Amino acid sequence: MKLILIAGALALVFSLFGTPALIKVLARRGYGQIIRDDGPVSHQTKRGTPTMGGIIIILSALFAYLIAHLIFGSALSMSAILILGLVVALGLVGFIDDYLKVSKQNSAGLSGKQKLFGQILFASIFGYLGTLFPDKDGLTPISLQLSTVRDTSITLGVTLVVIWIALMVTATSNGVNLTDGLDGLASGASVMTFLAFVLIGVWEFGQSCAVVATENCYNVRDPLDLAVLAAAFAGACTGFLWWNASPAKIFMGDTGSLALGGALAGLAASLRVELLLIPLGGLFVIITLSVALQVGYFKITGGKRLFKMAPLQHHFELMGWGEVTIVLRFWIIAGLSVALGLGLFYTQWVAS
Q1: What's the rounded Cα separation, in Å, for the pair 305 and 259?
Q2: What is the pLDDT of residue 137?
Q3: Of 5, 6, 164, 350, which sees the most CB atoms within 10 A?
Q4: Is 235 within 8 Å of 7 (Cβ atoms)?
């Protein structure tokens, strides 16, 4: 537990005090946010706000995790190393996209196909490597079984696991990316979801088959260290949120949103709660669905719109809701979604 608290606290401090320094560097170089002309008019005031703040989130979580282990002299787990590799890789994809936008001074960075290719490529590598590196009990970072709130009896095999993980990571990273449209919305929702993974990791460790040999014990590799990693990301997002809350002094950009989505999906896969990611990340799911429904309805009806604008948060903006009001109410939805996910997780354990 001390390792979890230290990692979270260090990440919070690094992010809280490192973000202002990053803001100065980005502002000096002119790396400001590019605002689309077809978006809400109120967003034009955000033009030029430093972006690529995801850099500090990634670095804060990474260094906090490593330093916490150095302090206590504990070994790094392969599960956490693979997730960090995925986060850095997706953060690089997002960084390239952000850099192209600010250097060209328009909202066209990487094309959709290029970004999707990078996400699928790195997610597939993560999925494949996750099926390797068994520990002394034969447990690999990612199971070959499909998991809901725990591993099921459905065996996927390596090929299907890689495809499934690529789908999970791509969907989640794009979901966080779509949510990152209002000040503090994505970072605040991410904090809640990462904290849920901290609780799940601690619980799975306490009820692991290596500790308590009961019928409902968990066969998960490195659950406690994954809780440490989740705490590091929760702390990093919290420190960043201090500066990202309305009126935002910095945006995370695709650098942060793609990386955070990868971290969430990686934790869900490694903790064997893959389908539980749907309720835990309920806000990201709702906002992603709003885009899918808007596009589908537009095509079916020959040009009509279901919402005034998608993603969903912009629909409420055009309805006259204030940005802070939308963010707070969406945070409530995110909190309720996390509570539902944790409730399902605990209920399954009690029932079994």
Answers
A1: 31
A2: 87
A3: 6
A4: yes
* Residue 35 predicted with pLDDT over 80: no
d(CA 112, CA 89): 17
pTM listed for this prediction:
0.94
Q: Quote the CA–CA distance of 22 and 303 in Å, as a whole number.
A: 43
Flag the least confident range among 42-51, 153-162, 272-281, 296-305. Answer: 42-51
3-state secondary structure 103-134: HHCCCCCCCHHHHHHHHHHHHHHHHHHHCCCC
pLDDT for the residue 223: 96
**Whole-angstrom Cα distance, residue 330 to residue 325?**
8
Residue 292 has pLDDT above 90, yes or no: yes
CA distances in angstroms from 339 to 63, 335, 343, 347, listed in the order given = 29, 6, 6, 12
- Residue 225's Cβ-count burial label (10 Å; 0-12, 13-18, 19+) is buried
Neighbours of 133 (CB within 10 A): 16
Asked whether 216 and 349 are in contact (CB, 8 A), the reply is: yes
Residue 338: partners with Cβ closer than 8 Å, 6 or more residues away:
192, 193, 195, 196, 279, 280, 282
- Domain limits of the chain? 2-280
Residue keyed to tokens 């306490």: 206
**339, 332 Cβ separation under 8 angstroms:** no
Q: What average pLDDT does range 316-345 have in this prediction?
A: 96
